Amino acid sequence: MRTKALLVSVVCLAFLFIQPATASQPSAFDFIASLTSARWMNHIAGSQSGYLVQQVYKQICFPLFTLGFIYMGLKKIRRKPESPSDDRSLECEAVAGENHVLLRLVHSKALEATMRVRFSGENFNCDDNPEYIKIEGGEPRSLVTVLPLDGDKAWDCWYETQWIIGVEGADPNLDFTYSLPFARGNSYRVTLADHEKSHSSLEEQYAIDFAMPVNSVVCAARSGVVVAVRDDSTAYGRSQSYNGSANYIVVKHADGTYAKYCHIKKASARVRVGDDVRRWQPIARIGINGYTNGPHLHFCVYHVEGMQRVSIPVKFNTAYGVLERLSKNEFYSHV
């Protein structure tokens, strides 16, 4: 596409700027070149050398500058981020029966998840709808049944779902020391530490961003079981609408906490849901996706309270010793 656009641009430039001039009408090229000529050319216009300089400018420099601008514009368009793509790791469907509607789990790519369902409508009842629904395993199953309050009257209902990866029940071990989430022999800079900018919410307040180039290896910082994997997205942008476009791997630890490794490269996951992983094990590579303007690893450890992910502080074993907090703009490496 870019090659075709450049070819069309060259043809248009040739037609516009190099058409022969007449006594009554100068070429468009001569007109535009005269508007963009520098003042210093006017001082040497009467000389033979001045004439040559103007011709070089008009016939070579100006077209090259124009093509350069067109090329940069096309390059920018080519690199334009894709539209946000919602995370479809968990999906439900409503199945209508003769006198009821059954909300059914179609699939879940997460081994553990918590869901909230909210209904609205007229003349309906769903007494068996708990506040939170625990999803364990991805097998299709019935979730909630909705019935009419008065079977002799018309009824209808609508629903919306909200879900997060993980379930309640953790007993976080705050004394555990994690490894840095990348391969040995590397040193990476922290671009965002805890309680900064986008890391101010309850679920992100202790998250750490490591500036890691595309294709850098991501390693497990602690042993556990893989409970969720997504690596199908390439959409990214500097808008929160891209939050649902990030790829990730989530690992559950022995104390019930979860580690989320975010912004992994498309099709780079080396583990699957249900796999046991050990500390140091390579699990993916870095890509560009989600709410970001460049490649990095977003690492966060959290536990679940109801429908809320609550991040917790993490100790790291580094070349500087065991650190309870990493600092922004500092480089860190393994022991």
State the helical fraction.
Answer: 10-25%
- The span between the termini is 49 Å
Molecular shape: flat
How many domains, as an integer? 3
The topology string of helices and strands comes to HHHHEEEEEEEEEEEEEEEEEEEEEEE
Uncertain regions: pLDDT < 50 for 5+ in a row? none
Q: How many DSSP E strands? A: 23
Largest sheet features: 9 strands, antiparallel
Under CATH at level 1, the class of the largest domain stands as: Mainly Beta
CATH level 3 topology of the largest domain: Glucose Permease (Domain IIA)
Summarize model confidence as the mean pLDDT: 84
Secondary-structure arrangement, i.e. CATH architecture of the largest domain: Distorted Sandwich
With helices defined by DSSP (H or I, 4 residues minimum), what is the helix count? 4
User: What radius of gyration results from the CA coordinates?
Assistant: 30 Å
Strand content: 25-35%
Structural class: alpha+beta
At the fourth level of CATH, the homologous superfamily of the largest domain is: Glucose Permease (Domain IIA)
Question: What can you tell me about this protein's structure?
Answer:
The chain has helices at residues 2-17, 28-36, 39-43, 48-78, and strands at 90-96, 101-108, 112-122, 124-125, 133-136, 141-148, 156-165, 177-179, 187-192, 208-211, 217-219, 224-230, 236-237, 248-252, 258-262, 276-277, 282-285, 290-291, 297-305, 308-311, 315-318, 321-323, 331-333. It is an alpha+beta fold and 335 residues long. The chain folds into three domains: 2-78, no CATH class; 90-165; 177-333, Glucose Permease (Domain IIA). Strands 9, 10, 12, 14, 15, 16, 19, 20 and 23 form a nine-stranded antiparallel sheet that branches. A hairpin with a 2-residue loop joins strand 19 (297-305) and strand 20. The longest helix has 31 residues, at 48-78. The radius of gyration is 30 Å and the shape is flat. The two termini are 49 Å apart.
